[in-house]
């Protein structure tokens, strides 16, 4: 339980509080009747006691407890503060400080003696004047030197014997005999000459001889602790300032007074900088959250009988503290899951030719105004069949539905409430509360969770979250006469089309509009239609009105949002919507624009969901994975089969049925030969004709990636840029091929993929191959 | 605002023919007409969003809520901003009246003649000298039932 962060906070806080105590005691001595001051001291000691108990610092807890008991009597007025009490309490404060220093340097309380002080405090509480008198003689250590106290004989009767021996054993200095009582006027720190102390000190054990020399401040130096509420308030104010700045800039554009323009420019710059700096005050490296993970992993690995190494990169990646706070628990949960379910036990790993020690990689990096966090394990990957089985068992989906799901959709099942794939429920994770909570929490802060798994090779979970929640750059669009803000994090690009262009460029596939964006089909979503305002897209196109396609990416899928017009980009301050509007998924919040009016912020994820919900049943290829869970519409899916994914350029993905693939080969380019107009290589003692699907291979000197296809005993090779993966999936084919070698497009594992029409490709490039007789 | 215990002071306003009141202590402020941003896909009772000194407040149309028909063209609604557990919301009304003191003795349950819709939202009636003042059940009046978004999926 003793995680470093908590202890650190405890130390900083306590050091500060103790310094305050010193001042309070001094002030009290001048006027012992200040009850509220005593109450304040009581609270401080009480807090330290509580935290010490929580962190299992038993001696510290015991010591502060006895101080607290005396203070409570003082607070209630049952006793009046006497100089003896003050010095006893101050001694206690010094001991507490010494212990804290020890904790800071070594992580443990050390052997700072407490019994003598406790005895004094107890005696004072019961009003035992004699004992007090005796006890108060023993000089408390000066603030700077926490030498073990000589154990006075008299109070020893009140000290538990065990404790007494401990003190006695440790204290080499001769015990101070009950010498003539000396009234202690001020705290020992000031009146007891420190010079009297050093003599016995050297003889004391070295281990804790000097714990407090570097005590207060070494943690807290150079830092000012600021109330989080204050930072939040500051952030809000900066938000308001940004709005006011936007307003001034907007109306300032109409005022052509040079001095005003200059001032508004300056205001602009200063506001921007102020905003950045205030944001910075709230930024914390993700390492703060990660730092507790190695311990979590270690304990968990031991508990599960596994060996796990944790690697981290990008620790310094900074996040707004609210965001950081929000991902703390989800992150821990994912890590626990990975260790518990992902990484196999050493014997299993050995059997799979993997190193016995599993690796858990955490990676954080900034990308496009967002923070990406990856948690990757090299474990067994997710067992899709187990997921399927469990999903049916738990009744979260129907058998018919499961049968139609592709791998990606199946994986998404783990995010459903009440789902757990753990074969056995462990006390670590797998209680069925988990991934759904993780997903909900991350989506709550505008993030996304994605999951990739490869059987036998491990699972990667990728979290994308916004840098900050308060102020975000946004694109302002207008449609249906209203303005809407789109956070730029999900913005990919803008395509402006004038009326005539638009009419030709937007094509319709089963009633769903698509746009060819550099050869890829981009499903279009009309914001007008989705929000049920203004003209439908068809009407707009028929009326030859210009449109703008805002290309957005949500959950790794892209879609084009059709809007009437694009205004500007602006820094907007995200404000929450009231509870009355929480149920509308397409809005993430609202903001106040430069003219003081409210504009709604679009939730790109929500729009994507809504879009695919609309498209469902009519156009299966445009659906996403997660939403397919409640898809009831039957559609013409291909059989579930294995696909080879490959690329013919650096971007696009193509697929062909794995059953059409005989082998995958690589040939050095030097092996390439010409036979007539054909490009061929020698392969297994025969000539393999090649069809170059690879686009623009000039300058590439790497080996040729060739997919060998066999047909009636003859082989042909397709030259491609890269082989990507083999996946098993059922897809729906969209017949919008180019008529040449592409059969159509389909969504395979959430990505639009062109399907290679093998027969047509051969027909087109190598007609004689099909005519050729079987060998 | 005096803080007398159980001082039944009601902030009054008119919605159509109905004169209604809400506990003064629930009212944060009363505003003239504010520019509103409509919220597509929101339940019909949500008229829009207003900017209340940097805070974004949902405005609910009490005419629609009480089923008294649409506001005549050209008339602008006034805002009665009331507090609830999680924030504030604005009730759009036709006209703002005075703050009146009412006595418990003059209180009666709602008359049976009220339309069922209004009856559900009216807690009772205070018989004043010259008029009847309906006590609005604010909690119910500002509650917006969440429709699921399935409407959207049938569209387009």
Broad CATH class of the largest domain in chain A: Mainly Alpha
The CATH architecture of chain B would be Beta Barrel
Cα-to-Cα separation, first versus last residue of chain B: 52 Å
Number of helical segments with 4 or more residues of chain A: 25
Helix content of chain B: 10-25%
What is the radius of gyration of chain A computed over CA atoms, rounded to a whole number of angstroms? 36 Å
The CATH superfamily label of chain B reads CheA-289, Domain 4
Mean pLDDT of chain B: 82
User: Cα distance, first to last residue of chain A?
Assistant: 73 Å
How large a portion of the residues of chain B is in β-strands, by DSSP E? 35-45%
Strand content of chain A: 15-25%
Low-confidence stretches of chain A: 130-218, 422-433, 613-636
CATH topology of chain B: OB fold (Dihydrolipoamide Acetyltransferase, E2P)
Oligomer: heterodimer
Describe what you observe in this structure:
The complex is a heterodimer of chains A (775) and B (156). Chain A has 775 residues and is of the alpha+beta class. The termini of chain A are far apart. Chain B has a single domain (9-141), classed as OB fold (Dihydrolipoamide Acetyltransferase, E2P) (Beta Barrel). Chain B has helices at 62-66, 116-121, 138-141, 150-154; strands at residues 9-15, 18-23, 27-31, 46-52, 55-61, 78-84, 87-93, 95-101, 107-108, 122-127, 132-136. In chain B, the strands form 2 sheets. In chain B, strands 8-1-2-11-10-9 form a 6-stranded mixed sheet. In chain B, strands 3-6-7-5-4 form a 5-stranded mixed sheet. In chain B, strand 4 (46-52) and strand 5 form a beta hairpin. The longest helix of chain B has 6 residues, at 116-121. Chains A and B meet through strand 17, strand 18 and helix 23 of A and strand 4, strand 5 and strand 7 of B.
